[in-house]
Input
Amino acid sequence: MDVLNQELVLREIPYGSAEYQKMLIFRNLHMRVPLGLSLFDEDLSGEVNDHHIAVYRKGDLIGGCIITPLSSTTARMRQVVIAPEYRNHGIGRMMMLFAEERTAQLGLSRLILDSRLSALRFYEKLGYRKVGSQFMEVGLPHYMMEKRIR
Output
């Protein structure tokens, strides 16, 4: 195990909290700004019913994702991000496994997500499979992927 992983805290953070506000800034910086977009141009009011997962290292936010329940069986994983300097250390994998466990605790058995083409192998290694054809989202090629989690 990478030594970085021994210093991690993964937990759900409350919508609207100071931690959530920091997560919005983090998501914008690492997911939207590189594409010339702003997260703050989007309607984020629907996130009130989502489950926000944060990854901290020594108290600093270094990653996160969102679980959005869609039905009695299915949730959508969204906004999956790890700070660039912490990628390729197994942290994204740990976060995904944590989020899958949280999804199972919610009584859901299936996760879907839209993967950027560049992240496809990452999700495939975690057991996700492509569903359907490639499509464009935020100006980048994506595939919908799914996984049964229990």
Summary: The mean pLDDT is 94. The CA atoms of residues 101 and 149 lie 8 Å apart.
